Amino acid sequence: MQSGKRATERVATVRPLQIRGRFFTAVALHLTGRPDRTFFDALDARLAQTPLFFDNAPLVIDLEQAEGMDSADELLQFTADLRARKLSVFGVQSGTAAQARAAAKAGLISLPGGRDVPLERVSRQGSRPEAVQVVRELPQSSKLITQPVRSGQLIFADRGDLVIVGSVSSGAEVIATGNIHVYGRLRGRALAGVNGDSSARIFCHALDAELLAIAGLYRTSEDLGPDTPRELVQVWLDGERLRIESLK
Amino acid sequence: MSKVIVVTSGKGGVGKTTSSAAIAAGLAMRGHKTVVIDFDVGLRNLDMIMGCERRVVFDFINVIQGDAKLKQALIKDRRLENLYVLPTSQTRDKDALTTEGVKAVLDELREEFDYIVCDSPAGIERGAHLAMYYADEAVVVTNPEVSSVRDSDRVLGLLNSKTFLAEKGDGSAVKAQLLLTRFDQNRSANGEMMSVQDVLEILAIPLLGIIPESTSVLKASNEGTPVSLDEKSPAGKAYMDAVGRLVGEQIEMRVNPGEQRRGFFQRLLGRTA
Predict the structure, then answer these.
(1) Is the pLDDT score of B259 beyond 60?
(2) Sign of CA dihedral B60, B66, B70, B72
(3) Residue A95 φ/ψ, nearest 5 degrees
(4) Which of A46, A72, B6, B168 has the most beta carbons within 10 angstroms of its beta carbon?
(5) Residue A242 has what DSSP assignment?
(6) Helix residue ranges per DSSP H, B40-119
(7) Which of residues 88-147 of A touch B (CB under 8 A)?
(8) What is the pTM for the complete model shown?
(9) Interchain contact B202–A (C-beta under 8 A)
């Protein structure tokens, strides 16, 4: 274990390197058959409807119903045609093994399956590039736990807030992409905003945590200090500093 | 309706086997037909605590593997009419336990016995998992110190998720109660040991009993007598109180049940739950 001082410094100073998980939205282009004259005509017509929306949008070619596309040359040509239309192709998905190999040769990455959402919902929002932001938000849903969280248990709310009615024991871990509420004593580790949401907060009735983290910035029990409020507190991120304040 | 009770803790050396023997003997003394099973395959101790180590011919593993009948492996206690011991193997390891085998043995025992006490090994691996898997109730043995309390907490999490009742998913659960062992009133009052309230606050389960630290426990173990048979010992009395609560009686919680009523100042200084 590092000394408490060292851990505080890590939070407070600018680090040369940070590794964070990142979610982003890409456009998937489903190719049926081969990209012929008709295909490009249809594509140009579609792009003309919302000229700015697709500008430099990260794009994946879906090869599930494509024909051919199993040689690097073919893929390189197709990529060049798309990039000429300001589409930022970076990978393929749902391809066969041969197509994946060809993609690798053409400098494209093969993505494992994702989930498609209708694009209409997005394009109707307007044609400004900011509209891409809208797709990023998955439907939120909070998770409710009504039993004490025991040592060794891990509770993960992957799409929003985590509400715990009861205590979180030492050696337990509660993690949420959103806020964490503990209506009891928090003795274990709590990590809020794990996808990088720095506005996430941790609320608890009594604070005795082993570790508190918001959007990857953390403090351990060692560097909480004797002045830290222990009853009815909230933990939030003030710039690069994790603050603990009484709610009383 | 028979009940399977697992005596478990996570941590080793807190008194699981001593408690299993004492609880089983206590239940038998109250007239319930009881069997106590040793799940600690490879490190068998229960037969020694029960004083029947020289009478072991067949064991739990022989029964699971079909080499012996259950009747051949059950050892009848010489002191108590209603008490039986199912010892385990010292030469095998936990892999000899199978889910189906354990279920078959427990199902057969359920037909004949009122209470089936399962003495769990330490840890949370196969032996401990199978000891708790088919339990209706659990006695979680804990010492008043932090590592024991944390391990018990871990075990409570497993009782809530990795047992047959929990996996049924219809809201039924293993009823878990706390047995606080090796408790020393003075050291707890001095702050050297955790208090009863501290332990209960962390574990958040009902208290079955408080067993005082007592020299009679080691003596009873060495003699091969369940400590609850020692009527003079405070630990024996505390176990009998716990057994009474286990079968549903309301018994006042006393830390030293054998002790004379203390004076006014002593009572003031040593208040307990």
Answers:
(1) no
(2) negative
(3) -85, 165
(4) B6
(5) E
(6) 46-49, 60-64, 70-73, 99-110
(7) 147
(8) 0.67
(9) yes
